[in-house]
Each structure stands twice: as structure tokens, then as C-alpha cells.
Write a structure and sequence with these properties.
Number of domains: 2
CATH class of the largest domain: Alpha Beta
Radius of gyration: 20 Å
Number of helices: 17
Order of helices and strands: HHHHHEHEHHEHHHHEHEEEHHHH
CATH superfamily of the largest domain: Nucleoside phosphorylase/phosphoribosyltransferase catalytic domain
CATH topology of the largest domain: Pyrimidine Nucleoside Phosphorylase, Chain A, domain 2
Protein name: Anthranilate phosphoribosyltransferase
Keywords: Amino-acid biosynthesis, Aromatic amino acid biosynthesis, Glycosyltransferase, Transferase
Oligomer: single chain
Strand order of the largest sheet: 3-2-1-4-5-6-7
Domain Glycosyl transferase family 3 N-terminal: 6-69
Shape: globular
Structural class: alpha/beta
Largest sheet: 7 strands, mixed
GO biological process, one term: L-tryptophan biosynthetic process
Domain Glycosyl transferase family: 96-335
Length: 357
């Protein structure tokens, strides 16, 4: 048993009257001890559920991110005129609405905007459809690449994926605990704003509950993160909804200033107010292939709605309307399909090099 960890556990697990928040340094220490399994399983499980009940603070999230920065993987800076977008999505996947973020990532990278995604396999507590499965169905298998190989793909295509089982096994080791406690611990919140990139980045984080956005803002301010976007998205992702107004927070140049609030109404841009449901993986991939071929569909509307917003926000287009038009042109012209083919070819080449070696 770790006496040092027990002292940290006592602070977060002592209840409303005597419990205390951790400092940034304490949160970083606790996270390092959990990742390294220096605390006992009983201590780790107790900490995760106690911290969830207490609810994390932004300062605690900042400390957890400090530990991830110290122990986790990072893709190295690439030569690009664009700040790299980090798309933060829930690791436990999607179960109700059709995800569009892989198409968004392809659109952005095809337009010259580098993107990094991160995640793992089907994970607790939702065990929804994960990003890595969608990519595999599209012909891009990130799961067998080392970090160095992923770096090669990222440098050649502007798209990278940090796959936890391969690149960050310390974090992967926490998922058994998360399954056993049956609830998302604060690590599931922190992961949405983790940045596995060593260069200049813009973090895009989805969330469900408004207090979570406030935690994000505090963590960003504490860490001096200047560039970020928050999205009250579908199932906590950064996919913009179509059935309601999209509520978005945009960072200012000063991380200590309030965010700029943006409300986007789908019908103002000619979109129907309807989300595409996730019926099955097969149905989703068929619909995605249709989108990549530039064919009209409900999922195409979702792709244009999201692609237009992100092309605008990364500076490729001057406004939302021109972003939507640009997204449509990239899809209908076959440019996005060509980008997908390029990624598969580069990945295959990297994999062949490993086999030869």
C-alpha cells in the first residue's frame, strides 16, 4: 500500500464537509501514481469513484494533464502553416447518433489543415463504436503502427492517430478499473482536452454538461493554453448537432479572458434539424462511402455542417457559408477521396518498410 497515495485519497474521499480539492501538483502526483500502478487496486478504484462523486476542478484537470504530458506519447512538430487541430472525443465511442469526425478530419487534412485524433478500442462505460473501428472500415488501420510510424504518416498526410493500446499502455491499463466501477471517472473528462502533440496546437473538445466546459476553461487558463474550441456536441463529441442550436465556445488570445460564445442554427444555413441515427456499423460505413463519393444524403448534410464550421475555424475559409461551400467542393470533386487514398498508400508503405526491416 502507498501511504503517500492514501493521503491524496483521503483529501478527495472525505465527503462534503471535510473533503478538499487537490492542488495541481497533487493531482499530477496522484495521476502518475495511478498510471504507474504505484497505488494498490483498492486505492485506485476508491480514488476514481470518490473523485467522480466530488467532481474535479479545472486545476485538478490541469494537474492530470501535466502527468499525461510527462508519461504519455506525443507526435512531434511538423512543418505546416496551420496550427494542428486536436479533436477530443469520448473514448467510449458512440451508440445513438452517427459520428462524422473521421470525415471531418479527412476534409480538414485534404484542405491542408493538420489533424490529430486519439482513442482506443471499445471501452467502458458505453462500449460504443470507437473511432479506430471506423478508420479500419475506411481502409486505414492505425492499430499496428508504432509512434514513429504514426509520425511518418502524420508528416506525409497531415493526419495522425494516437492509439492508446499501442502508444500509451499506461493509460490503457485504467480501463479495467473504469469498467469495474461502472462510471466515467474524471480521467474521461480530462482526455477530451489532452493534447498528444509537441507543437503548436488548437484543442477542440466536446462536452455534454455545461459545468464541464467551465472546468475546461479553468484548466486551459491554468496551463496557459491559448487556442481551443469547446462544442456542446453529439454524445459529448465535437460533432455539431443538427437537431438544435450548436453552442460553441471560442478562445480569445488571453486564456484568462472569457470565451467568445457562438450559436449556430442549422436552418439558418439551409440544413434540416435532424441528426442521423447510428443504426449499425454497416449502415454508417455505407453512408460514409456515399458522402466520400459526393452523393447527397442526410449524412452528407451533417458532413457539410461540420466541415463548413471547422474549415472556417481553422482559417481555410473566411466564414461559415464559404466553409460549407468549400466542404461541398472538396467532397464532390473527389479531393477528400484522394486524401483517403493517399493516407492508405502512405500507411501501407510505412507498414511494408517495417516488414522488410
Amino acid at each position: 500500500m502507498s501511504n503517500a497515495f492514501r493521503d491524496l485519497l483521503k483529501k478527495v474521499g472525505s465527503g462534503n464537509h471535510t473533503g478538499e480539492n487537490l492542488t495541481r501538483d497533487e493531482a499530477a502526483t496522484a495521476t502518475r501514481m495511478i498510471l504507474r500502478q504505484e497505488a494498490t487496486p483498492a486505492q485506485i478504484g476508491a480514488f476514481l469513484i470518490a473523485h467522480r462523486i466530488k467532481r474535479p476542478t479545472g486545476e485538478e484537470l490541469a494537474g492530470m494533464l501535466d502527468a499525461y504530458d510527462q508519461l504519455g506519447p506525443k507526435l512531434q512538430p511538423i512543418t505546416s502553416g496551420q496550427r494542428v487541430f486536436i479533436l477530443g472525443l469520448p473514448y467510449d465511442g458512440r451508440s445513438r447518433t452517427a459520428p462524422i469526425s473521421p470525415v471531418t478530419a479527412l476534409l480538414l487534412s485534404a484542405a491542408g489543415q493538420p489533424v490529430i485524433m486519439h482513442g482506443g478500442d471499445r471501452l467502458p462505460t458505453k462500449y460504443g463504436l470507437p473511432l479506430v473501428d471506423i478508420w479500419q472500415e475506411l481502409g486505414v488501420d492505425w492499430t499496428g503502427l508504432s509512434l514513429a510510424q504514426t509520425q511518418q504518416v502524420f508528416e506525409a498526410t497531415g493526419l495522425g492517430f494516437i492509439y492508446l493500446p499501442q502508444h500509451f499502455p499506461l493509460a490503457q491499463g485504467l480501463f479495467e478499473y473504469r469498467d469495474q466501477i461502472g462510471k466515467r471517472p474524471p480521467f474521461a473528462t480530462m482526455e477530451l482536452i489532452w493534447c498528444p502533440y509537441a507543437g503548436d496546437a488548437h484543442i477542440v473538445a466536446g462536452y455534454v454538461h455545461p459545468p464541464t466546459e467551465g472546468m475546461f476553461q479553468t484548466a486551459f487558463a491554468v496551463r496557459g493554453t491559448q487556442y481551443f474550441t469547446t462544442v456542446k456536441g453529439l454524445e459529448g463529441s465535437c460533432d455539431l448537432p443538427r437537431d438544435r442550436t450548436a453552442i460553441i465556445g471560442l478562445s480569445t488570445q488571453n486564456p484568462h479572458e472569457p470565451i467568445e460564445r457562438l450559436h449556430l442554427v442549422p436552418r439558418d444555413y439551409g440544413f434540416t434539424t435532424k441528426n442521423v441515427l447510428l443504426e449499425s456499423t454497416t449502415q454508417l460505413l455505407d453512408a460514409m462511402q456515399s458522402v466520400l463519393q459526393g452523393q447527397p444524403s442526410e449524412l452528407m448534410q451533417t458532413a457539410l455542417w461540420n466541415g463548413g464550421f471547422y474549415l472556417w475555424q481553422c482559417g481555410v475559409c473566411p466564414d461559415m457559408q464559404s466553409g460549407i461551400a468549400k466542404a461541398e467542393d472538396l467532397l464532390r470533386s473527389g479531393t477528400v477521396t484522394q486524401q483517403l487514398e493517399k493516407i492508405t498508400q502512405v500507411l501501407a508503405s510505412v507498414t511494408r518498410s517495417l516488414i522488410k526491416f
